[in-house]
Design goal:
Elements lengths: L7 H22 L8 H14 L3 E2 L11 E5 L2 E3 L14 E10 L2 E10 L6 H19 L7 H14 L3 E2 L5 E3 L6 E5 L16 E4 L2 E3 L5 E3 L6 E3 L5 E3 L2 E6 L2 E4 L2
Antiparallel strand pairs: 1-4, 2-4, 3-12, 4-5, 6-10, 7-8, 7-9, 9-14, 10-13, 11-12, 14-15
Bound molecules: 2-amino-4-trifluoromethylsulfanyl-butyric acid and cobalt (II) ion.
Length: about 250
């Protein structure tokens, strides 16, 4: 499959789907508190998507049952919202969502701490993971390579004393949730696909406090750290423009 270059009209549509994703995440994060369940977050997302007339991108994707992925603590990605999963003070929860608007996808994730009593190292994990996404985005410009992006992310993560997950990667995005190319959160400068104006990619570092290995639970979805350490996840959909990255979400 080839990388699909988007026209400025298509990128305008992706600004709208990206904006909708941002509004959903901003809405859902208000519901993160001790005692809330991950199903409460799912319900808030469903309501907001209805209000925005946005179609959920994840529900039904390869049989995935919900509009959000909610991954708590050692869960890395693809945690399934549940009325039985009650958030407590000191937890972290990654909220990942996507929508389709006018045929175009947006995809974004953020990780939120529950309550005010979050250990220092947990807070640092969130800060470093978000900063690694920022550095990856700063590396995006025409002529740069995916190795430049991955290396930028990886350096920030490893300098912080954490590790980058290898088994899941970011992706191209457009009229499908997952398009070429794959966007690893690790790599070497100068290697890999060259970026061109009009490409749109989702960069999504998944960062473990311990080792990089993950395993998928018997529900077929939930990925957890092999060593039980905490994991954080941030994601933005970004367009490659002549001036560099434009964050769409
Ligand atoms: N952000 C994730 C991804 O881009 C979410 C997909 S989960 C699924 O792969 F539910 F849609 F499968
Ligand atoms: Co994604």
């Amino acid at each position: 499959m080839a990388i699909i270059i988007k026209t400025s009209q298509e990128i305008e549509k992706m600004r709208r789907s990206g904006q909708a994703v941002r509004e959903v995440l901003e809405h859902v994060r208000k519901f993160v508190k001790a005692g809330a369940t991950t199903q409460d977050l799912e319900n808030a997302a469903v309501a907001k998507m209805r209000e925005l007339n946005a179609t959920p991108a994840f529900k039904g994707y390869r049989g995935y049952p919900c509009v959000l992925c909610t991954s708590v603590n050692e869960e890395v990605v693809h945690g399934i919202p549940s009325a039985k999963r009650i958030l407590k003070d000191g937890d972290i929860v990654s909220i990942d969502t996507g929508v389709i608007l006018d045929g175009y996808y947006g995809d974004s994730a953020t990780t939120v701490a529950v309550g005010a009593t979050v250990p220092e190292r947990t807070r640092k994990l969130l800060e470093v993971t978000e900063a690694s996404l920022g550095r990856g985005i700063e590396a995006v410009k025409p002529g740069a390579t995916l190795g430049d992006v991955g290396a930028a992310v990886q350096e920030v993560v490893e300098a912080g004393g954490f590790s980058v997950v290898r088994d899941f990667v970011g992706h191209g995005i457009g009229t499908k949730l997952h398009e070429d190319p794959q966007v690893p959160n690790f790599g070497r400068r100068g290697l890999g696909q060259k970026l061109r104006e009009g490409m749109v990619i989702a960069i999504e570092p998944m960062v473990n406090a311990g080792g990089p290995d993950v395993q998928v639970l018997s529900d077929g979805w939930t990925a957890v750290t092999q060593d039980g350490s905490l994991s954080a996840h941030f994601e933005h959909t970004v367009a490659v423009t002549a001036k560099g990255a434009e964050i769409l979400t």
